[in-house]
Amino acid sequence: MAKAELMDYAKALEQFEVVIGLEVHVELNTNTKMFCGCANEFGSEPNTNVCPICLGLPGSLPAVNKRAVESAISIGLALGCEIAPTGRFARKNYFYPDLAKNFQTSQYDEPIAFEGTIDIEVPSGNSYAIGIERAHMEEDAGKLTHVGGATGRIHGAEYSLVDYNRAGVPLIEIVTKPVIGAGSEAPELAAAYVRNIREIVKGLGVSDARMERGNVRCDANVSLRLHGAEKLGTRTETKNVNSLRSIERAVRYEIQRQAAILAKGGSITQETRHWHEDKGITSSGRPKSDADDYRYFPEPDLVPVQPSAELIEALRAKLPEKPADRRKRLQAEWAFADLEFRDVVNAGLLDQIEEAVTAGATAQAARKWYTGEIARLANAEDKDISELLVTPAHVAELASLVDAGKINDRLAREVLTYVLAGEGTPAQIVSARGLEVVSDDGALIAAIDAALASQPDVLDAIREGRMQAAGAVIGAVMKAMKGSADAARVRELLIAKANA
Amino acid sequence: MSNLVFKSASQLVAMLTAGEITSVELTQAYLDRIEKLNPAINAYLHVSAETALATAADVDRRRAAGETLPALAGLPIAVKDNLTTTDAPTTSGSKILEGWVPQYDATVVAKLRAEMMPILGKTNLDEFAMGSSTEYSAFGPTGDPWDLSRIPGGSGGGSAAAVGAFLAPLAIGSDTGGSIRYPASMTGTVGIKPTYGAVSRYGLIALASSLDQIGPVSRSVRDSALLQDVIAGHDKHDSTSLPASLGSMTEAAERSDIKGLRVGVIKQLQGEGFQPGVLNRFNETIELLKAAGAEIVEVDCPSFEYAIAAYYLILPAEASSNLAKFDSVRFGLRVTPSGNPTIERVMAATREAGFGPEVKRRIILGTYALSSGYYDAYYGSAQKVRTLIQRDFAKAFEVADVLVSPTAPTTAFKIGEKNEDPLAMYLNDVATIPANLAGIPGISLPIGTADEDGLPVGVQFLAPAMADSRLYHVGAVLEGLLEAKWGKTMMDFAPNVETLASEVANG
Fold this sequence. Notes:
- The complex is a heterodimer.
- Chain A is an alpha+beta fold.
- Chain A has helices spanning 9-15, 66-78, 186-204, 244-263, 309-317, 323-334, 338-346, 350-358, 363-381, 392-403, 409-420, 426-433, 441-454, 458-463, 470-480, 487-499, and strands spanning 16-27, 82-83, 90-93, 103-106, 113-121, 127-139, 143-147, 159-163, 170-176, 179-180, 216-226, 236-241, 271-276, 281-287, 297-298.
- Chain A has three domains: 9-315, no CATH class; 321-433, no CATH class; 441-499, Arc Repressor Mutant, subunit A.
- In chain A, strands 1, 2, 5, 6, 9, 10, 11, 12, 13 and 14 form a ten-stranded mixed beta sheet that branches. In chain A, strands 4-3-15 form a three-stranded antiparallel beta sheet, with no helix packed on it. In chain A, strands 7-8 form a two-stranded antiparallel ribbon.
- In chain A, a hairpin with a 5-residue loop joins β5 and β6.
- Chain A starts with 8 loop residues before the first helix and ends with a helix.
- The mean pLDDT of chain A is 91.
- Chain B has one domain: Amidase signature (AS) domain (Amidase signature (AS) enzymes, Alpha-Beta Complex), CATH 3.90.1300.
- Helices cover 40% and strands 11% of the residues of chain B.
- The interface between A and B is large, with 30 and 45 residues.
């Protein structure tokens, strides 16, 4: 799979206007599935959370999960949508082995929520109003595992296994209107939008919102048109972009790829494309045209969903604070400077820092670790911070170990690498690996004496008040003890010795 | 052979309750008769002798111990083979499901078990209930007990023939466009399609979800009432099931007076296309009702003209989607083509081999009707017709309490006669389809035999949605009037099916 020809990003934006559209699937965390009583549970043994309904056995019928409907309404309200007083489900018909009934029960022309808007701030501080076209309810499909063959894809596989545990898990699909005018910030806007959706559904408590588990999945539509053109260009829909970083990268890649094609007089194929995280490219999936015929028709096995005005108002009253309000509040609570706070927001670290603070860390310590060493490690591993094994509780524990003088910053950084490697909590690692700083005076004095042997003048210098001379001895002690010495104690002992 | 099998369900219930007979004795009597006659009639696809007798023995034991039992405990019953049963294969008349034993009981089946009714077996039907003659069953046609060379109607020919040939006192049917009422008419039995949603569809292998309805099959109106009272009611597994109870049908079947009842004769469902012998019996019936004090009015339902066309768009559309699940992946037949087939080829080969021609015809029709670009013209227009038909009914029920028509234009035709002409086959349901499109209840009961051929003729009454009790009321009254006039029951006109069966056996 070769990297396509790309146009320079700045040049692409000079020539073309970028239009993006985002479809986000949010998996709800209801106890049971959308249309049956099976557990909605991640990670169970394959095909254990199944019944005649989600297996699509002959004769079975769906029944709507009330909690899922309430969650859908809450999401709609949080996105500023109108809620349909009555809405029918529809069948989307297509044959695929992960789809038990060979149709997906979804909503088509009567979504439960529609016509909303949400303000999204990008790293530059610019804010964009994103129009929400609709949010609708549907069921997830099962999971296919392709066995044999080199790629793990269906082509070339010897056979495939189907796990229907996920079949029938409730999904809310949120579709934006075309987003025009973000220009060079379109990739960042796409990522910031998805981050906001995550924050919203997490805040509502309706989804675990873990992208690495597929709780939040994003399909990014990208098209280009010449500046001033009225007609939208042909779009591609990039699937499988499952982290905030890859959303940004995928949108940027598609802009550059499409620009290169269009600039040469070529045309864009309307198709789905797959994002390859490892190579940082998209590749052609199946052609998708508006003629894709799913033979939608109203689901005759379900009566229309008709939420009462009372229910809608009750859910509206329970909406948590808006992300923008929350940001304002947290900045005040944490007493972060504007620049500090924007860094935190742009890095998507609000949740982590808030949780670390709840776990006992100071806001500054949490910020320091997350925007510093943890961000560096994530970068080095080419991952999202949320994908690392370090939790806010770990960070709080790490900070408290440093505060208590058990470890110093250098050791703390080392501990972090072991946390990432899955060795346990910082306290467990410190004790298992014997990483505590040495503040045992006997050992320190022996090391100081050894260091002084090669620098006999230092004691005199200290007596004369030239304290910087102490640094050379402290450094030698740290080196000899491989960094585990308690530097402050070494200094104290050295001064005591000089003044003895 | 025991004479018990010829008694009505009501009589048998009384005898069981009084301890005059045991359920084992009764169940065995039916099983014996099934064993003897079913090879010639093919009403049952599967006979559950062992489990039926076990249920019967349990009832007898409990009754002997003085336990209070459900009203119909110990009364055997037959179930159409498109309802799931955990203890018997469920085929829906299709090769694609041959040998499949469901993991769950249909709600109606669960209710029969809770009522402690021994289930004798599963009855034949047109494949996936698509048909009106039972000839489209993948397991051979069923014979009409009045003439085994003729069709018993369909799709529920098995249930109607089982009841008509005294192979069961009661049976469960399902009616999508007439599959209970048309076979009742062909076999001189009684069949009711309740209001849409009155009986849970959970576990009924769907043909067309918005039209399907389960209902009773019996030899008398009162017997059907007993059964509807057992199977009706809201079910949380079927969101389209009605939340409210429709009252006691058994009580409705006991009312004797129809003075002042307004009976609307549907103008569009008589005359051209209807066999003279059918119309003769129908007209006599109207006279009989009039003489009993009913007020006869004529009602105009102009949109009925489009009912069959609309039905044959809506039904295939829903069926094409409902039948998509038969793909070999999770249950049923799997045909693996040679070479290194993809899943698409396995699915296609399975469906090619597993579905019969009528099923394929309707899947193709429905897929076409739902296709983008055709949706509005076909499915969309059909839904409009459906609304118009509902309006026709609403208007008619302003002037009439019940509506009446012959159940079918003709009496039973010969097996094979209409095989090459699907459109002629579709016309059999001209009178029954409008009720399904409108979701209203309908009953068919026998009103004698046609002069030309001596075969049974049925009359159909229709009532507004949720007014099922009116059908039991007028049906029971008419049944009484006819029996008084004849001095016997409808079944007394029927030939001895044992003789017919032995003729078949002797070639």
